[in-house]
Amino acid sequence: MHKNGFFSLLFHALFVIFIVAPLVVVMAMAFTSKGYLSLPTNGLSLRWFRALADNHEMLDAFGLSIKLGLASATIAALLAIPAALAISRYDFPGRGAVTGFLLSPLMIPSVVLGIAFLRFFSLAQIGGSFWALTLTHVIVVLPYALRLTLASTIGLERDIEHAALSLGASRWTAFYRVVLPRIRTGVVGGWMLAFIQSFDELTMTVFVATPGTTTLPVAMYNQISQTIDPLITAVSTVLIVGTLLLMLILDRMVGLDRVLIGEGK
Predict the structure, then answer these.
(1) Under a CB-based contact definition with an 8 Å cutoff, are residues 68 and 130 in contact?
(2) How many CB atoms lie within 10 A of CB 189?
(3) What are the structural domains of the chain?
């Protein structure tokens, strides 16, 4: 087996340091005792984590982002499954146009989408609600769920499904017991990408969010624009550590290779 040389290993090490170093710096600044952004050169302090625990605005925004991500990713995945099956199975007129339409939010700048949604909600007088914000996020994250789901449905053999139907299974049973397990990797991966994109969405959300529907990215943006205290680094540290723990738990329970690469690969 060919082994990587010294320069190859050095390049990979420098690349990892280049990626990880900003995260380490942000986490280090979260433990400062000073009232401005600085590295904790005079000892560690949990001052800003205690301030975060007392900041109800940030906590409420975090809870809203979690609920919004779960709702929008789940709805997007439920829409992506029938869409991907129809696109991959049937050669109907305008199939390419339908696919392009469903993936079009990827090609439209978030600023344009935000202005369009703001105008639409203003005219329809339905802005400011959680479900209005969910609708915008579903439209934005649907392409991410659809792409991975579509990748798992293309080339899917229908002989096993036909065999289940010929043996008396209903269409729902054949889908649930035969089709869904074979496309599960794409569905789960698409759901994960959709959730991450929804949780991280800022540019478009700024236009449609209201004081009652402020997500965590919007709250962090407002915090940075108004003050330079290290509270934002404490929020970032919690998110970084939480993400690492979530990945470890997911790897232990399911296996990241099965979710991101696919079973048997």
Answers:
(1) yes
(2) 22
(3) 56-260 (1.10.3720.10)
